[in-house]
User: Fold this.
Amino acid sequence: MTEILSVENLALGFRTEGGLARVLDMVNLSVRPGEIVGLVGESGCGKTTLARAILGTLPPAITRISHGRIRLAGADMLAGPGEATAGAVRGRAVTFIPQDPFASFNPLFRIGTQIMDLMRWKSPRRKPGARTGLYSPRRRRADRAAVIAMLDAVQLPQPERLLRKYPHELSGGQRQRVMIAMALLPGPRLIIADEPTTALDVTVQAQILALLRRLATERGVAVLFTTHDLGAAWEICDRVAVMYAGQTAEIAPRESFFGAPRHPYTRLLLESLPQEGRNPVGIPGTVPSPRAAPPGCRFHPRCPRASEHCRSARPALAGGEGHVTACHHPVMAPLEAVADA
Assistant:
């Protein structure tokens, strides 16, 4: 199946007063139509930077891309003028669901006004090259009908009444459903969801996850789902990619990821989860600074299986059947057998 998103050997850094911070180091990732891929890892591992690189919203004055490419819906996101890419792809082929539904709306304008502003510029009915500011009454009526239908699809009751409300009149779950609707309205090929359930209570989280899963399947939209919550990754994702200190550590189908992870970092992440009858085990040490990343495998200072080879040579992603790991000494036993291995 053709990939909607392909990130190949992406190396990216930021210029700082202390030197170049190498935030992403030869990252690889792909997402197929209708697939939800989870992107997990500790804070500071590069998940948000990768998402912003795909969207093309990193600050150009300090960003340095030294290697690799990003292809999205057939377009090379790192080639050509930035404005042309932004107009043709961002907000159309790829859209974004933010983390905080409480801070994502302007409190001074009604929900309908803000959604229709989006449709004015990003509606699939807007012809490429249309004159700036032109919004015919005919297209506006069609866009409004599409908005009402989409709000109904994300299970928001009385959508016409909701459009007249201000953001503060909606609950957190309702606002996040509106965000999902806005992400779907341009007819994207890929949605990047940046921890979209973090600010919601547990019951509403489950509803939002189920809604995302259903809509992705029904509409064939690919989703890149960044999260700290491994439970959410289990509920919604088809595959899971683990990042550590800007490197891709492991990519696996959901069942293999949770049942037989091969990278020591992945195993330690899963062992840190609370489980009945067992105290959670923390990961010693901290994520290294991107300005002073260790050579070789960046996880080796914290890895119980590290060898001299790990300290000098960066491991490449290797494996088969969709399960690849960047580790010189992968663990091949099921997770339940770790203690006995």
Remarks:
- Confidence is low (pLDDT under 50) at residues 337-341.
- The two ends are 37 Å apart (CA to CA).
- Residues 261-337 form one domain.
- The chain has two domains: 5-237, 261-337.
